[in-house]
Design brief:
single chain; 104 residues; alpha+beta; Ribosomal Protein L30, Chain: A; 3-stranded antiparallel beta sheet; 3 helices; 40% helix
């Protein structure tokens, strides 16, 4: 039986920014997170309606990279759109090819 490796996951939430236009927010989430046009549109509507949108769950390093990329993108185009990392309560369990020590 394959060993189980628990990988903690973190949600990336993009937050509402009152001074950011719909187009700016759309372009940022579309390009930074490589979303489809439909998904980027839905995300920006959700940000507008709820104050935030969950982009997805990632390892901590990937989540941090997305946040940094979003900050660099928005600064380069002269606006601000913030995001945060939240620990995802539902941890991702990944099977590995290694055997349990008990099975050896």
């Amino acid at each position: 039986m394959p060993a189980q490796l628990d990988v903690p996951m973190y949600q990336v939430n993009v937050l509402d920014a009152d001074k950011t236009t719909f187009k700016q927010a759309f372009d940022a989430v579309y390009h930074v997170f490589s979303l489809s046009t439909e998904r980027a549109n839905a995300v920006v509507h959700e940000i507008n309606d709820n104050g935030f949108s969950i982009i997805g769950s990632f390892t901590h390093e990937v989540a941090e990279t997305y946040i940094d990329d979003l900050q660099r993108y928005t600064e380069a185009f002269g606006f601000k759109l913030e995001a945060e990392i939240n620990y995802d309560e539902f941890e991702f369990t990944q099977e590995t090819d290694e055997e349990d020590d008990e099975d050896k």
